[in-house]
Amino acid sequence: xxxxxxxxxxxxxxxxxxxxxxxxxxxxxxxxxxxxxxxxxxxxxxxxxxxxxxxxxxxxxxxxxxxxxxxxxxxxxxxxxxxxxxxxxxxxxxxxxxxxxxxxxxxxxxxxxxxxxxxxxxxxxxxxxxxxxxxxxxxxxxxxxxxxxxxxxxxxxxxxxxxxxxxxxxxxxxxxxxxxxxxxxxxxxxxxxxxxxxxxxxxxxxxxxxxxxxxxxxxxxxxxxxxxxxxxxxxxxxxxxxxxxxxxxxxxxxxxxxxxxxxxxxxxxxxxxxxxxxxxxxxxxxxxxxxxxxxxxxxxxxxxxxxxxxxxxxxxxxxxxxxxxxxxxxxxxxxxxxxxxxxxxxxxxxxxxxxxxxxxxxxxxxxxxxxxxxxxxxxxxxxxxxxxxxx
Length: 391
Known about the structure:
The chain is mainly beta. 14% of the residues lie in helices and 36% in strands.
């Protein structure tokens, strides 16, 4: 777990309607004011919370124990990396019509939590009386970016389609003491750093989580993960992310807060790396634009810039080096206008990630020019010069 001919008939109909239109205009010259476009219903009309409706009491019990953020009891060496760091695992129930009884899991090094190295959807299911927990991973890695940090607002979790994910692992769950254990029934194929297969185990009970993802090479030798019979231990912890609602329809998640530089204010020169995603629509989680795409560059402007309405207040106060996520309801975004060459349909709720690159204060106003004597002062000086007096 740790890892997008009839035209002739139309003309005839139009010609037939023209006389009636002229009569209507002659009878009433009052201009017709079109109705303002109406925003469709959206999950972002709520507050982002979500209360899961589990189809089985066993699912509810396991999910209740797992939910929250867990921190490793000792540094862990991330697979495909030589670095050992404290690791954070966060689980939260999320609403997914395509996958009922689902949770979202996000795994990251504690000091770079804004860039998780594993994200997946976990789905409970049953065969007979046996509980299973399977992992579902996004087919397109870019969609992972739409999920980062969204456990803080599970009611706003992207409305992914079934075809956006593929199953990867499946664990059989069994009650054990006052908790549960889970284990893959076989090894699953992988292709990373010499490993060709992996197995996974977990143990969960109130206040304790143990995880063992083991990777093996073609000879069966352990490449990464804890030795057989041992686990990585985790305890409940606070997550460094902070969430807040900026204005109606705009939410901000602070993923890295440095608090050691100039905060963005009006007229500052600013630059951002950015990633933009669709929250729902016909292509949920789709990354419609990014400064990291070929031909793109850092977004540079004078604050608050010509950003969409909801982003203008959301960027104020940010500092260089910080990472933030913004959730923008459609009426604070592009409203009824499609954008990004059709990549953003009308009335799209949006998700953005911004990394602030720099914040530069505007130059100070020029010093006022030194003023010469007024006409009255000049006349007085001339009189004094004629009199030879010096008051």
